[in-house]
Amino acid sequence: MMSWEKNVRKVVPYVAGEQPKNPNIIKLNTNECPYPPAPGVGAALHGFDCSILKRYPDPDAALLVEALARRHGLSPKQVFVGVGSDDVLAMAFMTFFQSGKPILFPDITYSFYDVWADLYQIPYECQPLDEYFCIRKEDYFKENGGIIIANPNAPTGVLAQVSVLEEIIKANPDSVVIIDEAYVDFGGESCAGLINQYENLLVTQTFSKSRSLAGLRIGYAMGSEKLIHYLNDVKFSFNSYTMNAVTIAAGIASVEDEAYLQDTVAKVVRTRERVKKELSDLGFIFPDTMTNFIFAAHETVPAQEIFEALRTNGIYVRYWNKPRISNYLRISIGTDEEMDKLISFLKDYFGSCYTGGQKG
Amino acid sequence: MMSWEKNVRKVVPYVAGEQPKNPNIIKLNTNECPYPPAPGVGAALHGFDCSILKRYPDPDAALLVEALARRHGLSPKQVFVGVGSDDVLAMAFMTFFQSGKPILFPDITYSFYDVWADLYQIPYECQPLDEYFCIRKEDYFKENGGIIIANPNAPTGVLAQVSVLEEIIKANPDSVVIIDEAYVDFGGESCAGLINQYENLLVTQTFSKSRSLAGLRIGYAMGSEKLIHYLNDVKFSFNSYTMNAVTIAAGIASVEDEAYLQDTVAKVVRTRERVKKELSDLGFIFPDTMTNFIFAAHETVPAQEIFEALRTNGIYVRYWNKPRISNYLRISIGTDEEMDKLISFLKDYFGSCYTGGQKG
Questions:
Q1: CB contact under 8 A, A30 and B56
Q2: Which DSSP letter does residue A184 get?
C-alpha cells in the first residue's frame, strides 16, 4: 500500500440491484415502474432549448419546487429537491443525525440506512420488526439521535398506519423523524399531512417508482420551513447546482400530470392484486403489500433456489442472504405480460419440483 | 430553538454567482461560455427515447466514462464522472483528505475549497500566492494531508506550468494532489499527461465552461486506477445513481465533437485577447489569463464602484470583498457583442469619472 493510501476513506459500498444490459431480461429486481413516464416528459425533452444549457441551472430548482408544493398543498419553503431520494436522504442523515446518540430504524428495511450511518460515523440501533414484519412503536419511545422509517417499508411492503407514526413523531420532539415514502403512492397514506403540526417531521418521496422516472433522478423532502432551510444550507455547502435544467423541466411535466400518475398507479395495483392471488395459489406466503412489489417466501422451496432458477431463465428478482429474510424474494410488479411469464414459469417449476420428487 | 435543532449540522453555505432571471442582463459573472453546446447535444435530447427513463440509469455511466477515456488516452478505470466538478471535488475531499493533517491550497483560489474542508472537518492552511498571484512551489514541500491547486487558478486566471506542478506532485508521495482544471481548455496545458507516472495525482475537469454545458452538470476526475476505485466506493455509499440517463447521452454527444469544442474555445480566446487590450487601454491592470475570464483592477477607480455601476446598468460581473482581491473584478468572456457593450459602457463611465472630476 502506498503511503497516501493510509489516509483514504475506505467504505463498503452499497450494492444496488443488477441493471442487465440485455433487453430480453424480465426485470423485476429494482422496483421500477413498467410503464413509461407521463407524455409531458417526452414533450419537455423533445422541445428543450439546448442553448440555455450554457448557463448554470436555477440552483433552487424553484419551478419544480413550486410544482411539488402545489401538488402537496405546502409552501415552496417546505420542499427540498435532490438527485433521487438517495441524495435527499444521505443529505438528511448528514444534516440532522449529528447528536452522537444512536439513530433508530427497523432491522429489516432499506439497506442504504446503515451504509449512510457508517459513512457519516453516526451510531445506530436496529429495532426488530415483529413476526409479521410490523414496527413496534414502543421501540421508538427511548432516547435516540434521530429516527428513520420507510413507510411502506422496503423490502417487506408492509404499511404502518399514519396514527402509529404520529405517536412516534410526537414522542420524539428532540429528534428529527424521517418517514421515507418511496412507495406510498401505491396504496399508502402519506404523513405529509402532519408536516404543519410537527416541526421535527421530514417526509421524503421519489420520482423513481410511481412516476416511472428512475432514469431521471429526482427525489424530494417535505417538512417544516426550518428543516428545509437546514437541508438547503448543507446542500449549498456541497454543490450549488445539483439538478440540471433538463431534469427540472421534465420533472415539472411529470408533476403536472396527476391523472397520468393515478392511472399508472391503478394499473400497477390491479396487476399486483391478481399476482398476489396467483402467488398464493402457488404456495407463496407474504405480508400484505402496499407497494409495487411483493416480498414472498415459498412454503416448501427455499428462496435462493427459486431465485437462481428464475435468473437462469431470464427473470430477475431480488434476493438477500441476510438474517430473517434469507427465505424471501422481492418481486417487483411488472406489466401483466411480464407477470404472466413469471407465473407461468413458476407453475412449471413447482410442477417439476413436486412431480420430480427432487425438491419440496 | 427547539431541542431537535441542537443536533443539526449548521454550515455557512457557499454563495454562488447570481443567476438573474431577466434575459436582458449581460451575464459575465459565472464564467459560463456564451455559445451553445455542440449540436449533437440537441440531437441527443430531441431524439431521446423517454420510455427508458422508467429504468434506473447505468450507475457507472460507462458509455460516458469510455468516451472521456478515449478522448484523454486513458483507460475507463482511470475516469470518474460526477454531477458537476463540484460534486467530484467534494467527494474527493471526503475520500482523500482524511489524515487529520492540514491540507494546503492557495489563499486566493476557488472559494468552495474552504467550504468543503469545513463541512468535512478537514484542517487546512492557505498558502499565499506571490504578488503576481503565482503559486510558490516551496510552500507545498512541507508535511500536509493533501493538496489542491486550481490550474489555471480562479478567480485570478493565472496558469502554473506543468513542470512546477510536477515538482509538487513528486515531492508529496504521501498525499493526494488534486489539480482542478476547470478552465484548462482555454489555453492551459493539462496535467492529465502525468497520470500514468504519479499514482497520487487526481486531475478534475468540467463540462460547464468550454463545453457550454453548465446547465447539464457533468464533471469528471482522472487519476490512477486506485484513486478512481476509492472515489467510486465512496460515491456508491451515497447514491448509486447520480448521473441521469439523459445527461449521459447528451454528455457523450459533447465529448464526441472535438472540433466543435476547439472552435468554441478559439472564439472565446480570440475575444479574450482583444478585450485584454481594450481593458488595458481603459486603465485596467490584470495578470495574464489562460481562462475565459479576466481578473482586473482599475488603476484609479475602486473595483466595488465599477461593479455597482455595471450592475445598475445591467452588466453583471463578479466581485468579492475579501482580503487581497477587494480591488478586483472577475469579468467572464461573453460574445463579441456583449463585450462591446461592456467596453462601450466602461468608456463612457471612465470618461464621466475623469471629466466630471468626481472620481479618480
A1: yes
A2: G
C-alpha cell at A186: 401505491
Q: pLDDT of B293-350, one tens digit each?
A: 999 999 999 999 999 999 999 999 999 999 999 999 999 999 999 999 999 999 999 9
pLDDT digits (tens, 9 = 90+) for A261-274: 999 999 999 999 99
Sheet holding B293-298, edge to edge: B284-285, B293-298, B329-332, B318-319
- Residue B13 pLDDT > 80, yes or no? no
- A340 SS3 class: helix
Q: How far is CA B202 from CA B105, B225, B246, in A?
A: 15, 10, 27
Compute the radius of gyration of chain A from its Cα atoms.
Answer: 21
Q: Return the pLDDT at B31.
A: 97
Q: Based on the number of CB atoms within 10 Å of its own CB, is A252 exposed (0-12), middle (13-18) or buried (19 or more)?
A: buried
List the single residue in A51, A58, A236 with the smallest CB-CB distance to B19: A58
C-alpha cell, B290: 489562460
Q: Which of residues 22-61 of B touch A (CB under 8 A)?
A: 27, 30, 32-37, 41-42, 45-48, 50-59
B157-173 average pLDDT score: 98
Q: Residue B259 is placed in which grid cell?
A: 472540433
Say how far apart CA B109 and CA B320 lie, in whole Å.
12
Strands A219-223 and A284-285: unpaired
pTM score > 0.90 for this model?
yes
**CB contact residues (below 8 A), chain B span 56-95, against chain A:** 56-59, 83-84, 86-87, 90, 94-95
CB B297 within 8 A of CB B325: no
Cell of B45: 435530447
Between β-strands A315-316 and A26-27, what pairing exists: parallel, antiparallel or unpaired? Answer: parallel
Please state, in angstroms and rounded to a whole number, the distance separating the CA atoms of residues B300 and B238: 50
Give contacts of A 290-349 with B, CB under 8 A.
none
Interface of B with A in 141-200 (CB under 8 A): 145-146, 173-176, 199-200
Give the whole-number percent of chain B exceeding pLDDT 90. 87
pLDDT value at residue B175: 96
Summary mean pLDDT of chain A = 94
Asked if the Cβ–Cβ distance from B7 to A98 is below 8 Å, we say yes
Give ∠ CA B121-B127-B128 in degrees, rounded to 5.
Answer: 135
CB–CB of A55/B21 below 8 Å? no
Read off the pLDDT of residues A237-248 as tens digits, 9 standing for 90 and up.
888 888 999 999
Q: What are residue B220's DSSP bridge partners? A: B81, B205
Q: Is A257 on the interface with B (CB under 8 A)?
A: no
Mean pLDDT over B115-131 rounds to: 94
Max alpha carbon distance in chain B (Å)? 67
Say if residues A304 and A326 touch (Cβ distance below 8 Å).
yes
Q: What is the 3-state secondary structure (H, E, C) of B26-87?
A: EECCCCCCCCCCCHHHHHHHHCCCHHHHHCCCCCCCHHHHHHHHHHHCCCHHHEEEECHHHH
> The cell 417439476 sits on which residue?
A352
